[in-house]
Amino acid sequence: MYNKKYYIGVLCLVFLMFSFVSAVKPITDISLDFDTGLVIFSPTQSQFEVYEDHIFNWQVFNKSNGIILTNESVNCSFGLLDMKGNSILTHQNPTYTNNAFRFKVTSGNFTEGYHNIAIKCVATDGLIGGQKARSIYFTEGGLNIDEGRATIIIGLLGILVLLLFISLFALFNIDGYMGKFILYWVSHVLAILITFSAWQMELMVY
Protein backbone atom coordinates (compact mmCIF):
# COMPACT_ATOMS: atom_id res chain seq x y z
CA MET A 1 0.00 0.00 0.00
CA TYR A 2 2.73 2.47 1.00
CA ASN A 3 4.80 1.41 -2.01
CA LYS A 4 2.03 2.31 -4.43
CA LYS A 5 1.24 5.56 -2.65
CA TYR A 6 4.79 6.88 -2.77
CA TYR A 7 5.43 5.97 -6.40
CA ILE A 8 2.21 7.64 -7.49
CA GLY A 9 3.21 10.71 -5.51
CA VAL A 10 6.62 10.85 -7.19
CA LEU A 11 5.10 10.61 -10.66
CA CYS A 12 2.77 13.51 -9.84
CA LEU A 13 5.70 15.61 -8.64
CA VAL A 14 7.65 14.95 -11.85
CA PHE A 15 4.64 15.97 -13.92
CA LEU A 16 4.21 19.18 -11.93
CA MET A 17 7.90 20.03 -12.20
CA PHE A 18 7.93 19.95 -16.00
CA SER A 19 4.61 21.75 -16.30
CA PHE A 20 5.80 24.64 -14.08
CA VAL A 21 9.23 25.15 -15.64
CA SER A 22 9.04 26.40 -19.20
CA ALA A 23 11.41 28.63 -21.14
CA VAL A 24 10.09 31.96 -22.41
CA LYS A 25 10.42 32.56 -26.13
CA PRO A 26 13.21 34.91 -27.23
CA ILE A 27 12.37 38.61 -27.35
CA THR A 28 12.50 40.07 -30.85
CA ASP A 29 13.62 43.58 -31.76
CA ILE A 30 12.88 44.63 -35.33
CA SER A 31 13.98 47.80 -37.10
CA LEU A 32 13.42 48.49 -40.77
CA ASP A 33 16.83 49.14 -42.35
CA PHE A 34 17.37 51.65 -45.16
CA ASP A 35 20.39 53.63 -46.38
CA THR A 36 18.77 56.91 -45.41
CA GLY A 37 16.07 57.82 -42.95
CA LEU A 38 15.62 57.94 -39.20
CA VAL A 39 17.18 55.56 -36.68
CA ILE A 40 15.17 54.95 -33.51
CA PHE A 41 17.07 53.80 -30.43
CA SER A 42 15.23 52.51 -27.35
CA PRO A 43 16.40 50.63 -24.21
CA THR A 44 16.51 46.86 -24.57
CA GLN A 45 14.54 45.98 -21.44
CA SER A 46 12.14 43.23 -22.43
CA GLN A 47 10.58 42.03 -19.14
CA PHE A 48 8.14 44.19 -17.22
CA GLU A 49 5.91 43.92 -14.18
CA VAL A 50 2.28 43.78 -15.20
CA TYR A 51 0.78 45.78 -12.31
CA GLU A 52 2.98 48.88 -12.68
CA ASP A 53 2.95 51.93 -14.94
CA HIS A 54 5.86 52.02 -17.40
CA ILE A 55 7.59 54.86 -19.23
CA PHE A 56 8.95 54.00 -22.67
CA ASN A 57 11.87 56.12 -23.91
CA TRP A 58 13.54 56.45 -27.29
CA GLN A 59 15.89 58.71 -29.22
CA VAL A 60 15.80 59.53 -32.92
CA PHE A 61 18.86 60.04 -35.14
CA ASN A 62 19.35 61.05 -38.75
CA LYS A 63 20.90 57.95 -40.27
CA SER A 64 22.89 59.83 -42.92
CA ASN A 65 24.80 62.07 -40.49
CA GLY A 66 24.14 60.67 -36.98
CA ILE A 67 22.64 63.89 -35.64
CA ILE A 68 20.11 63.45 -32.82
CA LEU A 69 16.75 64.95 -33.69
CA THR A 70 14.29 66.74 -31.43
CA ASN A 71 10.53 67.12 -31.39
CA GLU A 72 10.97 70.32 -33.40
CA SER A 73 12.10 68.36 -36.45
CA VAL A 74 10.44 64.98 -35.88
CA ASN A 75 6.91 63.84 -35.10
CA CYS A 76 6.61 60.47 -33.35
CA SER A 77 3.79 58.11 -32.47
CA PHE A 78 3.72 55.21 -30.01
CA GLY A 79 1.55 52.13 -30.29
CA LEU A 80 0.90 49.22 -27.92
CA LEU A 81 -0.51 45.96 -29.31
CA ASP A 82 -1.48 42.66 -27.72
CA MET A 83 0.11 39.34 -28.64
CA LYS A 84 -2.35 38.89 -31.52
CA GLY A 85 -1.50 42.28 -33.03
CA ASN A 86 -4.68 44.03 -31.91
CA SER A 87 -4.15 47.69 -31.01
CA ILE A 88 -4.46 48.51 -27.31
CA LEU A 89 -3.55 52.19 -27.56
CA THR A 90 -1.95 54.70 -29.93
CA HIS A 91 -0.48 58.04 -28.94
CA GLN A 92 0.63 60.74 -31.37
CA ASN A 93 2.37 63.32 -29.16
CA PRO A 94 4.85 61.86 -26.67
CA THR A 95 6.70 64.25 -24.39
CA TYR A 96 10.28 65.26 -25.19
CA THR A 97 12.85 65.94 -22.44
CA ASN A 98 16.62 65.46 -22.12
CA ASN A 99 17.05 64.51 -25.80
CA ALA A 100 14.55 61.65 -25.58
CA PHE A 101 10.91 61.04 -26.43
CA ARG A 102 8.89 59.60 -23.55
CA PHE A 103 5.47 58.09 -23.19
CA LYS A 104 3.89 56.72 -20.01
CA VAL A 105 1.56 53.73 -20.26
CA THR A 106 -0.57 52.97 -17.21
CA SER A 107 -0.79 49.46 -15.79
CA GLY A 108 -4.43 49.03 -16.81
CA ASN A 109 -3.29 48.55 -20.42
CA PHE A 110 -1.16 45.48 -19.63
CA THR A 111 -1.99 41.84 -19.11
CA GLU A 112 0.36 38.95 -18.40
CA GLY A 113 2.08 37.62 -21.50
CA TYR A 114 3.52 39.06 -24.70
CA HIS A 115 2.81 42.56 -26.01
CA ASN A 116 4.27 44.50 -28.91
CA ILE A 117 5.29 48.13 -29.08
CA ALA A 118 5.62 50.09 -32.33
CA ILE A 119 7.33 53.46 -32.61
CA LYS A 120 7.04 55.51 -35.79
CA CYS A 121 8.78 58.84 -36.44
CA VAL A 122 8.56 61.12 -39.46
CA ALA A 123 10.50 64.31 -40.13
CA THR A 124 8.36 67.44 -40.11
CA ASP A 125 9.17 68.02 -43.78
CA GLY A 126 7.84 64.53 -44.56
CA LEU A 127 10.94 63.50 -46.51
CA ILE A 128 12.36 60.83 -44.21
CA GLY A 129 11.03 58.55 -41.50
CA GLY A 130 11.69 55.41 -39.55
CA GLN A 131 9.98 52.87 -37.33
CA LYS A 132 10.85 50.28 -34.73
CA ALA A 133 8.86 47.32 -33.43
CA ARG A 134 9.73 45.01 -30.58
CA SER A 135 8.14 42.38 -28.38
CA ILE A 136 8.00 42.74 -24.60
CA TYR A 137 6.88 40.32 -21.91
CA PHE A 138 4.82 41.03 -18.80
CA THR A 139 4.79 38.85 -15.68
CA GLU A 140 3.53 39.29 -12.14
CA GLY A 141 7.07 39.73 -10.83
CA GLY A 142 8.61 41.36 -13.88
CA LEU A 143 10.94 38.40 -14.52
CA ASN A 144 11.14 35.53 -16.92
CA ILE A 145 13.44 32.59 -17.39
CA ASP A 146 15.49 32.18 -20.52
CA GLU A 147 16.32 28.79 -21.99
CA GLY A 148 19.78 28.58 -20.38
CA ARG A 149 18.53 29.29 -16.87
CA ALA A 150 15.56 26.99 -17.37
CA THR A 151 17.89 24.14 -18.38
CA ILE A 152 19.98 24.59 -15.24
CA ILE A 153 16.94 24.73 -12.97
CA ILE A 154 15.36 21.68 -14.60
CA GLY A 155 18.65 19.86 -14.08
CA LEU A 156 18.73 20.75 -10.38
CA LEU A 157 15.13 19.67 -9.94
CA GLY A 158 15.96 16.47 -11.78
CA ILE A 159 18.70 15.75 -9.23
CA LEU A 160 16.21 16.24 -6.39
CA VAL A 161 13.77 13.85 -8.08
CA LEU A 162 16.55 11.29 -8.54
CA LEU A 163 17.47 11.54 -4.86
CA LEU A 164 13.81 11.09 -3.98
CA PHE A 165 13.63 7.91 -6.07
CA ILE A 166 16.78 6.59 -4.39
CA SER A 167 15.46 7.32 -0.90
CA LEU A 168 12.11 5.65 -1.72
CA PHE A 169 13.83 2.61 -3.18
CA ALA A 170 15.96 2.28 -0.06
CA LEU A 171 12.93 2.84 2.16
CA PHE A 172 11.12 -0.18 0.74
CA ASN A 173 14.16 -2.41 0.70
CA ILE A 174 15.77 -1.75 4.09
CA ASP A 175 14.86 -3.89 7.07
CA GLY A 176 15.87 -1.82 10.09
CA TYR A 177 13.20 0.27 11.78
CA MET A 178 15.51 3.23 12.37
CA GLY A 179 16.67 3.20 8.75
CA LYS A 180 13.07 3.16 7.51
CA PHE A 181 12.22 6.03 9.85
CA ILE A 182 15.11 8.18 8.62
CA LEU A 183 14.48 7.44 4.95
CA TYR A 184 10.77 8.15 5.41
CA TRP A 185 11.51 11.70 6.56
CA VAL A 186 14.27 12.20 4.00
CA SER A 187 11.73 11.34 1.30
CA HIS A 188 9.25 13.79 2.78
CA VAL A 189 11.83 16.60 2.88
CA LEU A 190 12.87 15.96 -0.73
CA ALA A 191 9.24 15.95 -1.85
CA ILE A 192 8.67 19.28 -0.08
CA LEU A 193 11.81 20.78 -1.66
CA ILE A 194 10.71 19.68 -5.15
CA THR A 195 7.20 21.08 -4.67
CA PHE A 196 8.48 24.37 -3.23
CA SER A 197 11.05 24.80 -6.01
CA ALA A 198 8.45 24.17 -8.71
CA TRP A 199 6.10 26.65 -7.03
CA GLN A 200 8.82 29.33 -6.93
CA MET A 201 9.54 28.73 -10.60
CA GLU A 202 5.88 29.21 -11.41
CA LEU A 203 5.88 32.57 -9.60
CA MET A 204 8.99 33.73 -11.48
CA VAL A 205 7.72 32.76 -14.89
CA TYR A 206 4.10 33.84 -14.54
Question: Which CATH class of the largest domain?
Answer: Mainly Beta
Largest sheet: 6 strands, mixed
Mean pLDDT, nearest integer? 77
CATH superfamily of the largest domain: Macroglobulin (MG2) domain
Strand-residue fraction?
25-35%
Using the coordinates shown, work out and report the CATH topology of the largest domain. Immunoglobulin-like
Shape, principal axes of CA atoms? rod-shaped
Helix fraction by DSSP (H/I, runs of at least 4):
25-40%
Instruction: Please give the CATH architecture of the largest domain.
Output: Sandwich
Query: Which regions have little confidence, pLDDT < 50, spanning 5+ residues?
Result: 18-31
For the CA atoms, what is the radius of gyration? 26 Å
Provide a count of the helices.
Answer: 3
Secondary-structure element order, N to C: HEEEEEEEEEEEHH
* Strands, total number: 11
- First CA to last CA: what distance? 37 Å
* Domain unit count: 2
What structural category do the secondary elements indicate?
Answer: alpha+beta
How would the blueprint of this fold be written?
Layout lengths: L1 H19 L8 E3 L6 E4 L5 E3 L4 E9 L5 E2 L4 E9 L4 E5 L3 E3 L2 E6 L7 E11 L5 E11 L7 H25 L5 H29 L1
Record keyword descriptors for this entry:
206 residues; alpha+beta; 5-stranded antiparallel β-sheet; 3 helices; 11 strands
Brief rundown of the structure:
The protein is of the alpha+beta class. 35% of the residues lie in helices and 32% in strands. The protein is built from 3 helices and 11 strands; from the N terminus they run αβββββββββββαα.
Describe the model.
Residues 18-31 have low confidence and may be disordered. The protein has 2 domains: 2-23 and 145-205, no CATH class; 29-139, Immunoglobulin-like (Sandwich), CATH 2.60.40.1930. Strands 1, 3, 6, 7, 10 and 11 form a 6-stranded mixed β-sheet that branches. Strands 2, 4, 5, 8 and 9 form a 5-stranded antiparallel β-sheet that branches. The chain has 3 helices and 11 strands, in the order αβββββββββββαα. The longest helix is centred in the C-terminal third of the chain and has 29 residues, at 177-205. The chain is rod-shaped and about 90 Å long. It is an alpha+beta fold. It has helices at residues 2-20, 147-171, 177-205; strands at residues 29-31, 38-41, 47-49, 54-62, 68-69, 74-82, 87-91, 95-97, 100-105, 113-123, 129-139.
